[in-house]
Design a protein that fits this description.
Blueprint lengths: L3 E3 L2 E3 L5 E6 L2 H6 L1 E7 L6 E6 L6 E3 L7 E6 L4 E6 L8 E8 L11 E2 L3 E5 L2
Parallel strand pairs: 2-11
Antiparallel strand pairs: 1-3, 3-8, 4-5, 4-9, 5-6, 7-8, 9-10, 9-11
Length: 121
Amino acid sequence: VQLEESGGGLVQPGGSLRLSCEASEFTFNTYTIGWFRQAPGKEREGVSCISHSDGSTYYADSVKGRFTISKDNAKNTVYLQMNDLRPEDTAVYYCAAELTTTCIEDEIDYWGQGTQVTVSS
């Protein structure tokens, strides 16, 4: 299972970024895919996940109302639109896949390589 991430970078506070996670068709249709992040000195945390079966979504409280997860079935890609970014959103963001639908790190079966998001003026 390969998860190809893209879209990280440097953005000013209040700005926006969109992360992309491309997977194979099998992975896209079998696994729940989501995003986790890890800031320096902190544990990795679940940010948002989207179910492969019914499209239900999960968001961490810290990103509700600012981040939106979506998927494009034709492109086998999951997106994380991040708006109103804050310095505390700075982290390495990882795409992740699980057979369950928990958005919990212990349940993740596969990880992407990670992409850096830095929010700074």
